[in-house]
Every structure is written in structure tokens, then in C-alpha cells.
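User: Predict the complex.
Assistant: Input components as received:
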Amino acid sequence: MPAHQLHPEKWVDQYADYLFNFAIARVSDTEIAKDLVQETFFAGLKSANNYKGDAAERTWLIAILKRKIIDHYRKINSKKGKAEVRINYSSNSDVEGDWLQEQVADPFAKSGDKSLENEELSLALQECIAKLPKKQALVFKMKTIQGMATEDICNELKINPSNLWVLVHRARTALMTCLNQNWF
Amino acid sequence: MMISCNEAADICTKKQYKEASLFQTMKLRLHILICKSCAQFSVKNSKLTSLCEQAHMKVLNEVEKESMKKALKEKL
């Protein structure tokens, strides 16, 4: 019996947000990212027979998603005019002072590093959230990520505020422990 | 004015979402002065809040997830 098995009926709950964040970091468009996640699930279902069980389910899905992202870029590139080849220092060459000097990367800008770190952080958080009990995860996401008002969440889930705070509190405590080794 | 650690933790979590009243915040401050473990917890809790902000996380909402599930089920 293989070490891992696929449970497609649980994919959306367990991995959708994780894959979604992974995709957003690479295509920076929520709609496209959503479609890519959906396509990944379909492709996973289609090739479920090829799954050998060596890798964890999520790793396997991420591998598929990566292919989908590459395909996405191939597609949009092939749509662009192929005949026109322009080589410029910069894409907005009308701007005055079209000099290499001005195109040099700012040595003090750490935005690349930062965004990479933020992506790692986001995935780490997502991973920890996925480990929470379902209700805690749901309430935490609504409150923290979607920024919903306490009252709205209570109405939607039919719980009372003190109940909500207990759930949020437990979720936060669990997340602190989960993130502890790397991020605190 | 004196509150238990449980109450302090509750206020601390509410404070992360700016939903603690001024009076509650004062009670929490006072408690933190005398309780080391709650002080530690409070620092960690704030850190978690800033990490969450920093991560710019996005989630799919329930409607989107439901439609995904449905689409997946049809192919199953």
C-alpha cells in the first residue's frame, strides 16, 4: 500500500487556499489564479491513476499547478504579436533620459527579497491554518483575512460573539505554536 | 480592576482586531504589568497580527469554493 493516497473530495477545503496563494504570487491576478487552481484540480483528477503515492498530496498538486502556470505564460506569450521584435533599454522608451544608468537596479531596494519572504510567510501561514480544526480555520479566515465584522460572522455562522472569540483565540494560539520555529 | 489571565487573553485577542474598549485595554495593561506570561503572550499575539498583515494572504470565499467543489464532483 502506498504511503499517500488521494482524497479528491477534500481537495477544495484542504488545498484551495494554499494553491491559490501560490498561484497569485506568480500570476498576480486573482481571477487567473482561481482558474489555475480549478484547472489543477481537474488535471489532478484526470491523472489520479498516475499518482504513485511517493509524494504528499499537496506536493503533487503543487507540481501540477506549476505546469499550469507555465502553460498560462506560454499561452499569453503566443497571443502577442510574434513578428514585432523590439529591443529597448526600457519598455517606455519615449521617456527622456533613456540611459542604461537609470535602469540599473537600486542596490538599496530589497523589494525582491521582501516579496519572496512574504510569499514564504503566506504559504507557511496557509499551511498552519489548514491544520486547524475546520470551524476555527473558517472563523479565523473570515475575521483576519477577509476582515469581516464580528456581527456579520456571527449571523452567517449562527454563533454568538463570545463563541466566536473563543474560536479566534484558540486558532491564534495554535497558529503561534505552529509558526513558532521559523517566524517568531 | 484586577482581572484573571483568561480575561486578559480574551481582551488581548479582541485588541488585535481593534475591538477592545478603552477600559478593557487599561485593565489589560495593568494585568500585563504584574503577569509575565500574559505579557509574553501579548507580544506574540501582536507579532502574529503583523505577520498576517505582512503576508497579504488571500482566500477564496465560500461561494467560490462551493462552485469549485461542484465542478469537481461532476468530474468525479
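Chain B has one domain: 5-75.
Let me know if you want any component modeled separately.
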